[in-house]
Amino acid sequence: MKTFAEQVAALKATREAKQEELKAVAQKSIDEQRSMDTAEAEQFDTLEAEIKRLDDDIARLSRLAEIDKQTAKAVGTEGREETPIHKSVGTAPVQVKNTEKLEPGVAFARIARCKALSRLENVSPVDIAKTLYPGDDKLVSGLVSKTAVGAANTITGNETWAGNLINEGGAAFADFVEFLRPRTLLGRIEGRLRRIPFDTPVLVQGSSGSAAWVAEGKAKPVTSWTYTRAKMEPLKVAAIAAATEEQLRRASVAADQLLRDELARAVAARLDTDFIDPDKAAVSGESPASVLNGIIALTGTGDTDPDGVRGDIEIFLNAFAGVNQSLAGAFWVMPERIAIALSLMQNPLGQASFPGMNFDGGTFFGLPVFVTNYAETTTLGSVVALIKGDEIFLGDEGGVSISMSDQASILMDDDPSSSMDSTTPTGSASLVSMWQTNSVAFRVERIINWQRRRAESVAWMRVNWSSYSGTGN
Questions:
Q1: Is 162 inside a domain boundary?
Q2: I need a surface site. Which of 79, 128, 239, 309 has the fewest CB within 10 A?
Q3: Residues 338/463, Cβ–Cβ less than 8 Å
Q4: At what angle do helices 106-121 and 171-180 cross, to 10 degrees?
Q5: Rounded to whole angstroms, how far apart are CA atoms 378 and 464?
Q6: Which of 55, 90, 125 is where one domain is finished?
């Protein structure tokens, strides 16, 4: 394995190559006496960001290389070839204060990475943290404050060790949740939903009461309504993401960001898909139903142009008005492709038909829009939903845990239930050994649940809205 000094040299060579590539991009537009086009500008900005990231990595690794050098001189081992992790575990004569401001979620990924390397290297996670992230006092204190767990080893025979790495609470967890929130549909709308605690009975209304005018001396009518009692139980969404040992050992901020992004992506895809998929029914004790499940889709006009869109929106709004449902607190959910189409629609004068719309959402007929890539699109059209947020119950105590193992065999399947049957297993051919492939599997689990208060809380339709009419308008 490369030493820190060797990694610095390799990064400097990479930086030099990127710098030459950056100059070449700029020189091309200069030679042609023009400004950079969009592709060139994007390439230039990308290269510039990569060079900055390399500079940051070089600075960090240079500090570690100097610490290694000083440590080797102090103990008389200069010139010996040792792994970077093991070389740096000794007491360093210099402590460098790390004042960098971490991107959201990176602190969470650093804890997971240090714990994983502790398992792989049989070294204390605190020592790993001090080596990889010198001066990151928050990281070290976060690791120290948790119950000490000895690193697994072959002597103990504890080959299936895979305890929780990160438990509920802590600044690093809160930071990761903040990173995850804007990347999921559920995270962006959760402030509009009605949050309730788990295992607390709530009343779900089945029908409403009524009142009447009464003349003097006449009997007042008796009204009634129906409720069903429901309880929001804690349910668990889980996913597994794998990383190579080489990636975890690489002393680079990119490795932290990759780990963070993969863990976030694993959770986000499942939550968003099941929240808005009309076909997702509840599985008792396992998963909630989509807020659209069991609701009959509205029938639209079938027209795709702006007038057709307005006709469909009238159907949407009348679905709420027809049951005396207020639109206060309501919002739209739609795929990004539909939001793009709406933002591009123009009237005959070339003006935007729906000026509040953009590819990321915006406002549509006075109500906020949230886009997601997980809203279903089929040959019948794309799912667009109108949801009254305060009529949707959400249970989320913020519980999340990360577990890891480098010994397990993982079925590399996004639907393992179809091939992992204890009576008739069929998925063994797809099993991948983490040990055999020098990989580490991270399991993410989050406790969350949601439930629609009543059917009138949502309305949805499959649409084919498009900005292209075939006539150039």
A1: no
A2: 79
A3: yes
A4: 120
A5: 10
A6: 90
Structure tokens given for 451? 């439930």
- Domains held by the chain: number: 2
> What is the C-alpha to C-alpha distance for residues 411 and 423, in angstroms, rounded to an integer?
17
Q: From CA 289, how far away is CA 282, in angstroms rounded?
A: 4
Classify burial at 416, counting beta carbons within 10 Å of its beta carbon; exposed 0-12, middle 13-18, buried 19 or more: middle
Q: Which amino acid is residue 324, in one-letter code?
A: N
447 domain-assigned: yes
Q: Are residues 247 and 361 in the same domain?
A: yes
Residue 288: domain span: 186-206+234-417+439-473
Q: Is residue 151 part of a domain?
A: no
Report if residue 97 sits inside a domain.
no
Query: What are the tens digits of pLDDT across the range 165-224?
Result: 333 334 555 455 555 555 678 888 888 998 888 877 766 655 555 677 888 877 877 766
* The model's pTM: 0.57
CA dihedral 166, 170, 176, 178 (to 10 degrees): 150
Query: Are 198 and 86 in the same domain?
Result: no
**Of all helices (H) and strands (E), which one includes residue 367?**
strand 367-371
The answer to whether 85 touches 128, Cβ cutoff 8 Å, is yes
CB 158 within 8 A of CB 152: yes
Q: How far is CA 86 from CA 6, 65, 91, 123, 239, in A?
A: 16, 13, 12, 8, 32
Kindly report, residue by residue over 231-282, the tens digit of the pLDDT: 778 888 877 767 777 766 665 556 666 666 766 776 777 888 899 999 999 9
Q: Which two tokens stand for residue 410?
A: 């993982």
Q: What angle do CA 304, 308, 309 make, to 5 degrees?
A: 85
Question: Can you count the helices (H) and strands (E) in the chain?
Answer: 12, 17
The Cα–Cα gap between 380 and 183 comes to 27
102: which 2 tokens? 């971490």
